[in-house]
Amino acid sequence: MFTGYDDDYLQVNQNRYTSGISIHQGVISDGWGPERLRDLSIKHLSALTEPAPEVLILGTGRLTTFPDSEILDYMAEHHIGLECMDSRSAARTYNILVGEGRTVSAAILLPGARK
Fold this sequence. Notes:
Elements: E1 2-6, E2 9-12, E3 15-17, E4 21-24, E5 27-30, H1 42-46, E6 55-59, H2 69-77, E7 81-85, H3 87-99, E8 104-108
């Protein structure tokens, strides 16, 4: 569960991360992904598709933005719901969905990341 965040860190279970992270099947990968959404590629998300979660929460940094259509198509082909939102909202939404017992993964850029 996310327990804190600010522009330059994400905190999960009291562990602080100073780069983007992914969480898949309860495993946290720090140093995940690009620093900015515009550099996001399928390669960054492919490890989060097996086994496929019900939903992948994509935290896009400071603002809610959407990845390229290639990534949207890739997620649709794998029958994974993709929810894009700013990173602070992504952390809160992840906690809610986990609390509901949903199968959810997250890929979250630092909250201060810009496009």
